[in-house]
Amino acid sequence: xxxxxxxxxxxxxxVAVFVYGFILWTFxxxxxxxxxxxxDYSFVGLKNWTRLFTHRRFRIDMRNLVLYAAxxxxxxxxxxxxLASLLDQHVKGENFFRTVYVLPFAVSGIVTGVxxxxxxxxxxxxxxxxxKIGLDFLKNQWFASKYGILAVTIAASWQGTGYIVALYLAGxxxxxxxxxxxxxxxxxxxxxxxxxxxxxxxxxxxxxAIVLTGMNSxxxxxxxxxxxxxxxxxxxxxxxxxxxxxxxxxxxxxMGAALAAFMIILSAFLVxxxxxxxxxELER
Length: 284
Prior knowledge:
Elements: H1 2-29, H2 47-53, H3 56-87, H4 94-102, H5 109-119, H6 125-132, H7 148-173, H8 177-185, H9 190-201, H10 203-219, H11 222-227, H12 239-249, H13 253-283
């Protein structure tokens, strides 16, 4: 017991200081007047939060967050489950396809953004391809349009779907063959098997995928910064990107801290129920 405590203590202290300690410090800074290069810890209460919530850019970013989350989570989870279900059929070349699906996840967001910036350039990439094959109606302004944040989710889904595939494939492989055979004996076809047996059994995996993709939606920064930046009239802007600009470009540290604290609160709405459900499952 003593040995275990000695081994775990450094990690516990590191997490307490560098995770939870800095989170508390972020909330502390958000209530100060430090919005210049000169450090100012004067307490101003919720002044920065009020300025944040009444700012036009904040309302646009919240709209972008809703659009990004709805599109990115739908694409990643739906495609992830579909591709994992196909791989679960033990197709020929399964190892190759698994590598192809997961490989984009190993690519950094910056590299992904640079590649898709070329692909979504209005005069090259996908638009040029559509023009060459006679599908001009598919040509788009992509991230340069009013709802450019939806184009960003295409690149994000390309990168992140592979990880969801791995999650669902592990879950599918964990479904007992006896359960599948019992459903077949009862007369269930493939659709009924998935709808009434496999999908309900995979709900813990789905909940995990929702939390992971939701967290990604809240904190997305690197992809946007390399792909488009805030875009025209902040069409591609995100909370994380605005936080970066406030903190490291405009030196509005208290405003940046308020944005970071708000993102932490949003994340808690996802992580909190998830941890509670995991605890409930363990206690059953």
